[in-house]
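Q&A log
Question type: sequence-to-structure
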Amino acid sequence: MYRTHTTLPKKKRDDWKTIRSLTPFLWEYRGRVIAALGFLIFAKIANVGVPLALKEIVDALDTSTGQQLVLPLMLLLGYGALRLSSSFFNELRDSIFAKVRHGAMRKVSVRVLEHLHNLSLRFHLDRKTGAITRDMDRGTRSVSSMLNYMVFSLIPIMVEVILIAAILLGKYSVWFTVITFVTVTIYIIFTFRITAWRMKYRAIMNTNDSEANTQAVDSLINYETVKYFGNEQYELNRYDAKLEHWEEAAIKSQTSLSALNIGQGAIIAIGVTLIMILASQGVVAGTLTMGDLVLINAFLLQLFIPLNFLGVVYSQLQHALSDMELMFNILDEKPEIIDKPDAKPLVISGGSVRFDHVNFSYDTDRQILFDINFEIPAGHKLAVVGPSGSGKSTLARLLFRFYNITEGNVLIDRQDIQSFTQKSLREAIGIVPQDTVLFNDSILHNISYANTDASKEAIINAAKVANIHDFIESLPKGYDTVVGERGLKLSGGEKQRVAIARTVLRNPKILVFDEATSSLDSKSEKAILQALRDVAVDHTTLVIAHRLSTVTDADQILVMEKGHIKERGTHRELLNQNGIYAHMWELQQEARKHEEQGEQAVYPV
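Response status: OK
Response body:
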């Protein structure tokens, strides 16, 4: 199960594994990567050539040698050409590599979202949406950051160090190379160790940032609940508590960065001073020219100025790897429900549905369904009623194959649903759920979601069948009205009518109504019931109901209690049995009488 970190991970992060996980997304752009690296090397060769040209210019202008002073025009032009070449090749590198960075970001983002859609319902019920979206956002941005740091910072520094060291070793005393390498080595070791120590503060920052974002998103999604109970300050206090821990870690991260910078500056200062003393001694002794001194000084500037940013680059690279790891951890999650290798598309002939001695548990220590056995013949309607927690809605989830059953089989047209592809199975079933959650988009978009290719006329006809067309037309923007987050701008009944219209538009062979009228008053219920009956004609229909008045016309009714089927029969047969169903019917009829008399009705189950 995927979890955002609440404590620091004890297991050491595998950076190479994270980098390898990124490789497949870059392979398509391997030609561009090679070209960009080639231009990078050309840019660094030109950059290193600048001090060499400068040395020749200084030596040509040095009057202390007794030579006649002549303007070294060709050297000056060469100096300018090298400067231009360095800039030119750098820009070529950037423009060619832009497609790699942004293309990889896009592909990773699409792949992660695709994988999240493929993960099981169990994963999504356990997840914290705010934290996952935060991890996705940081992770995809870190892909660009890591590639940026690698190609534009780390690799250029390595190339430049190698080129400068080779020139120093070839032209001057070995001690110049030794001091340079020792300084760079000490600098890198110091930087990496201190930065690795500082990473714990970044991990704490990420943890509290994700958790704070989760709380903020949850409080906004549940805006009405927050308002109902007047808990605005409570939510702010929870949010602020997480941000307080984030702030403490951020301050420690910044102060430790200052300590890192001081140490880096000291190492560079010592190395540069030793090399300049050595070079100055050479000038005094006559073994080196003033041009050599300028060359060495220019090399040191070119070498150590980028190294000043190595700590920041390494730190940001570690941050990017840390963020990428959280994102790739999502990709490491294995889907619980997968198609068999030989799974075929479902082609419905009649549309009969059978639960054949089904046992099911969400968790091994708590069984939900016990030996559930029933059949819905093609074109018939079967209703399931019973108290909350009896396992009614679980039947719909198993039919959609959101979970694999523990024992038994679920069959459509006498074929096990596990032999079909999940996509084709779900295309053959339409549902009006108990809790209708709409996209924060227009009513038109939400209805057409069942069939994205449907015409406007077909959408309007579906809305008319669901008895919501007149309401939509009464709105200022009509079908273009945006329903708000999770459909908060619509009432419960209006949302369920949209859900009914969506199912009508899909027109599947098998229908599931899961408490489809639970948010409607009695008057609205009567109008919707007829619509549902019209929709269900010639369809195999499973009705999960709270109100028994909605299922009196069912061909068969199952009464469930604690995961068992306790009674079964038609409405009349169950009343004659004078059992659980008859008792529920009596209580609900009494409640309906109170409602008709203007009192608040409570429908016991």
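Response note: The chain is about 65% helix and 10% strand.
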